[in-house]
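Many introductory courses stop at the sequence. We go one step further.
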Amino acid sequence: MEMPKDTPSGVVKLVQQCWAKNPDERPDFSKIFKSLRSMKT
């Protein structure tokens, strides 16, 4: 699935990590939260 062209690169990277085929490669919620929090500031 393509992301909109104006999507921030950090969001694109995070979404790609969350969509990893191997569940062990996906970030846990605390890592997702930290990533989103750092993007906000």
